Amino acid sequence: MPAKTVPVFDGHNDTLTKIRHGGPDAQRSFLERSELGHLDLPRAREGGLAGGFFAIFTSSPNYERVVGPLLGPDGEVVPGGRSIQLPPQLDRDIATSWTLSVMSDLFRLEAESEGEIEVVRTVADLRRCIAEGTFAVILHIEGAESIDENLEALDVFYEAGLRSLGPVWSRPTIFGHGVPFDFPRSPDTGPGLTSVGHRLVERCNELGILIDLSHLNEKGFWDVSGLSSAPLVATHSAAWALSQTPRNLTDEQLAAVGKSGGVVGINHATGFLRWDGDGSGKVATPLTEIVRHARYVADLIGIDHIALGSDFDGATIPDDMGDVTGLPRLIEAFRSAGFEEKEIEQVAYRNWLRVLEETWRD
Ligand SMILES: [Zn+2]
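# zinc ion complex -> structure
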């Protein structure tokens, strides 16, 4: 008997940004099958992806990602380490203009799909989409640079359909500070939320917008943990104990996520999975690394708190995953590792449904 197909709902992709961003991906349509990138609708159907969080991310203009040596506390070079300079705070006009453009791309795509794709605003929408096979999109903004200190834009974006927000990508915002991509390094890399950041958390709670902790530094994480009435969520991170990038969560942070009833979408980025943090794609990384992190988190805080957060179109993922069509192989790897069918369904989509039910207003 062939193994049962499990629908997967995914915590993070950068597909909208990638398609709009120029370069070869700008030539592709989400509705048509492509060999570029990790995700489009035909490949999502083939892989059993029922939908996911679609991020809008604004790049910093003229930013060049330069990798340098990592220096220890006394200025000594850490062997095998690396440091990447983050861009400075982004101008709000640039972020607003880009965010509106990508948001419009999404709504036009929804219309053009003639019912194949739906931007979901309620858990009832999401459940119906999964049941009917309509591809469900949660509108997420990664890095709140397009939101003003009076949070007026937040209200407007919410009305448009925003249901998930990262107060920071890794560069600083008026709300808080993100983690750099240094390796190895603790996520405790700077100050916590600003006073406007506190108000942002409160307003997200009031509106029922999920707050994504994935790029926030550790002090910011604890600030949200102390303030927020919603379950704690990292949409695309993994376990720091297994891969010491500040983008991952320490055991203490994972425990807090578990205690709050939240969830961690296990990232598929090789740089966040591997013990040596190698995200270059030059060394083979098996997709079982994703399962290894899931097992670690499950043993620590329970199966209720694990989901998937692929980072499709935003990171180098394991070769044997390839793209979204590799999802059945990932599900099979969970089976081979001894996860039961009920647990696999939880990881694949049911934990997301529970957390969204507790976070959104309706
Ligand atoms: Zn990210």
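# post-check
The first strand starts at residue 8 and ends at 13.
The longest helix spans residues 92-112.
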